[in-house]
Amino acid sequence: MDTRQYLYCLKPKKEFAEKAGIIKGVTVIGKLDIVWKTNLGERGRLQTSQLQRMAPGYGDVRLSLEAIPDTVNLEEPFHITCKITNCSERTMDLVLEMCNTSSIHWCGISGRQLGKLHPSSSLCLALTLLSSVQGLQSVSGLRLTDTFLKRTYEYDDIAQVCVVSSAIEVES
What we know:
The chain is mainly beta and 172 residues long. The chain has one helix spanning 14-17; strands at residues 28-30, 33-37, 43-47, 51-52, 61-67, 71-73, 78-86, 92-98, 104-107, 112-117, 122-131, 135-139, 142-146, 151-155, 159-164.
């Protein structure tokens, strides 16, 4: 007698995701077909209508998360891995800036040169953060600046992490 809700996120296959320009013209991506059995052995099925691909709001630079922990300890550093993809048709020279929020603090050098990123190419970055507030916290405050065009791309609400107390209370 349980009710469950699932949220699905469809992503292109890795070989297509690497070349951002290939999937630009695709608008219909297919149907989602879900089949299950109940506790009594009855079969259930859900098939969606054709799913439309929303035009990605990537602009010239796409930032995606490759790895991030679900839960982190309060005031202890944790690591995330970001992937930056150049979706434009020109080479970019990028600088990474990290802006702290009231609850999430970036550890590392802000204003770091990432170097040149050619069209349709990507680079992965390992970054370190620290949270000073418990609860569900939003990872925000990344800025990428293309020094060629003097254009800044802002990335806020990249992801959320659950911050828990690392202290274990012992009863006496």
